[in-house]
Specification:
single chain, about 110 residues, mainly alpha, 2 domains, 3 helices, 2 strands
Length: about 110
């Protein structure tokens, strides 16, 4: 189930997806890369325009799951709980990766349990 966590990319708390939810959204994002290429080839439009059209399905599903109206499909790649480490013992923000040795936000060394 989605849970609110700090996203270093967005620099705000956003709903992060669990692995089951991510598998659904991630599949649409992967398909959107192919859709963008095909759309650009067919229409001869700039990348920015093709990206808006092709990624709406992933954005719609993310909103359906979380209730949060994300507008940037690229940000969704960072809204997956399992790519982050535990919360920092000093500032509470999640470590950027499960293997991180320091908190990127406040610089504190990770406490190992």
């Amino acid at each position: 189930m989605a849970r609110m966590m700090y996203c270093w990319r967005c620099q705000i708390d956003v709903p992060m997806l669990d692995d089951q939810e991510w598998s659904r959204v991630g599949a649409l994002l992967g398909n959107s890369v192919r859709a963008i290429k095909e759309f650009r080839e067919r229409r001869g439009v700039p990348l920015a325009e093709a990206t808006k059209v092709a990624s709406w399905e992933a954005l719609h599903l993310y909103r359906e799951i979380t209730g949060f109206a994300e507008t940037n499909a690229h940000a969704l790649w960072h809204h997956q709980i399992s790519i982050y480490g535990p919360p920092c013992h000093a500032c509470g923000k999640p470590l950027r990766t499960p293997r991180a040795k320091r908190c990127f936000e406040c610089g504190q060394a990770r406490r190992h349990q």
